[in-house]
Amino acid sequence: MSVRIEKTDLPGIGVRHDLITERGRRIGIIAFRDGHREISIFDLEDPDSCTVSIPVTDPEASALAELLGVSVILSKFQELSNEDTGLFTEHILLPADSEYAGKSLGATKARTRTGVSIVAVVRNGKVIASPRPDERLDQGDALIAVGTRNGLDALAELIASSTG
Prior knowledge:
This protein has a 5-stranded antiparallel β-sheet with strand order 1-2-3-4-5. By secondary structure, the protein is of the alpha+beta class. The chain has helices at 58-80, 110-114, 149-160, and strands at 4-10, 14-20, 26-32, 37-42, 50-56, 88-93, 117-123, 126-129, 142-147. Helices cover 24% and strands 35% of the residues.
């Protein structure tokens, strides 16, 4: 069985989207007409019987989506990273004395200068996926970057350049 999504209109209530896993588990997201939502886990034997229902706020839904999305993206990048493709993923720490600490990601011109894409920033244990050019960089940030070995080395050198 493959992963699939089913959509069910709930007249007067909203919409239910179910993800059916490869093992046959059913996880539902109910989006109510008034804007709130719930995550539901359904009984394995009876797909209409909900065993757990968890109300989720907008910030919680966003955080959950980000966690799931980033973990999938990073695992896909790890799969691509090898000598055969010439593509690598690396965590590069922004040193405290970097000239880019306190400046925007765009100020680095990393992609133009190194050919490397910065796909996420990890700050204080939180992931900022697909950071925008105006994302401010802080000392100690981990930049999640994808590129060639030479490009990643150039990026590490670029962000290590000090203000002193």
